[in-house]
């Protein structure tokens, strides 16, 4: 391949790529967190019920997850940079056009459909694809760092957006998100090469006899995406990964991310203060998820998942019985923040172990789809139960019990033999 343009920093340019992708994932996290900030202001402005707003948020979360495997296939087929720029443009359109919404279906279209499709291409699968393409070593650590961008997005956006919503209304909130997404487009164009070989480099940490990078995918996009699903679905390890990550989404951005501010409002806690607790979770998750990546490079990821899910489930059962004082919320925020998405690096490691470097990004996309189906289910369920029962007690206990179940399911995940980790997963009837 012809070298297009050499960049500074030599092999360390891989870290520049990580920084650019980190910022894109940060903006996507801010977009996904925005419906939680808008829930109370939109209710006051239009009289929309929490069920209406939760439904739109659930659609956005669902599409965010379902886009994952297709986004991975699109990146293989058309390139990371093209897909990322297109996704940022869709996110900008979704946020900016919502400033003129007046009906619930406008909310569904902008913050449900468009934001879900756009942000679904700027998600965990993007991080997995970039790490696999640019790094040969330290993959767990880099994936932990990129996954932590969700926490950093929460840290940066939620308190600021909640303050804007409280003092200026909801329209400046959506326009702020639109401006951030639009500003990233030229940065991606300038700093993100398609692959290391385009600038005369190899993957960071690659040894001399290491296999070449996996080339761009070819063939029909649906066949590429659904074919990987068909092959993976025949193996029990896929369904265990899917089920545990379903619970991950159910217990994080579906429940806490969408309903935590509203739940605190039920106990007389202002939006900005509640958003501050979420921001604190973001601070600690930045450390927790990065540390989880480091631990994944060194310990059995199944045992890590057992600890993460088990403690998460118990903390969710505790929260509705707490007194919602500053002390108890801070304690919950620190603990839950460390655990928020620490599950991603070990889940990606197990997926790569089971399905190989070639198919792992698309298969992981389907596993992430399970995460977002769980998140959408929790966002919708908690909103409906809150309306029917007048409190969030039942959905939090249900989510906590699911976390405990997922902890034991994680121990049943079988790892592929080490000598087969880099072999591609082939369709039935083919041989290597």
From TrEMBL:
Domain Major facilitator superfamily (MFS) profile residue range list: 16-418
InterPro entries registered for this protein in UniProt: MFS, MFS_dom, MFS_trans_sf, Proton-linked_MCT
CDD domains from the UniProt entry: MFS_YcxA_like (cd17355)
Keyword match Membrane: yes
Keyword Transmembrane: yes
Bilayer-spanning residue ranges: 12-33, 53-74, 83-102, 108-131, 143-167, 173-192, 237-262, 274-295, 304-321, 327-348, 360-385, 391-411
Keywords, comma-separated and alphabetical: Membrane, Transmembrane, Transmembrane helix
UniProt cross-references to PANTHER family, sorted A to Z: MONOCARBOXYLATE MFS PERMEASE, MONOCARBOXYLATE TRANSPORTER
Protein name (Swiss-Prot/TrEMBL): MFS transporter
Organism from which the protein derives: Dyella mobilis
